[in-house]
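Collaborator request, handled under Task 6.
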Amino acid sequence: MGKLAGKVAVITGGTTGIGFATAKLFADEGATVIVTGKNPATLAVARAELKGRAEVIAADATRIADLTRLFDDVRARHGRVDILFTNAGGATFRPIEAVDESYFDEIVALNLKGVYFAVQKALPLIPKGGSIVFNTSVAGVKGVPTTSVYSASKAAVRQLARSLGAELVERGIRVNAVSPGPIETPIFDKLGLGEQKGAVLEQFRSTNPMKRFGTPDEVARAALFLASDDSSFMTGTEVTVDGGYSSF
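Structure tokens returned to the collaborator:
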């Protein structure tokens, strides 16, 4: 019997990186796992690698219609959602002079709008004892040049854990967040760093107290802690997994 035996877990953005590692771990711990993604290539890989361990559904977490369809489907198949891990998100970095309205809206939709409405659409299916886990970022507490929009969106999600934690506590639903630091995931290929990528990665590595990147599995284990009864007396809080990056 695993820590999540008999639980139904939905992971948005679960086809790569942290979400994918978490899907495998949750399945190993006995959960029925449903993951979402929107990239046809990563959806295909996830379906092959998670076959028999998790359901993989094409859904864009920034589209309310897709979220409605997702949770309608989960209701029909499973009847409830015991665990919601809102992992879908993304980033590209720009200096403030290069930020336009479309870029701003895109980043906020990826990291805040999608999280908020995933909770809203899932909530009717979450019973007493349910757990919601957000994926935030140390960028929400660190001041890093060119990350202003991304950092603000992640700080807003941290506040959602506080405010929704307070709002849902009387329903017996816990809301917490896991905050990763520099983690080895495909996100670094999407930041728009160009020729600066190598130098930026080395800066992250050299300035981290542990002198390395974290792994998706290390974040997944923190998400498991927050999703399971191991954290039964915790709500509205954030667990940081960053090798000390945001502390020293």
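The cover message to the collaborator said: "Helices lie at 17-28, 40-49, 64-78, 101-122, 148-168, 197-207, 216-227. The chain has one domain: 8-241. Please let us know whether this matches your experimental observations."
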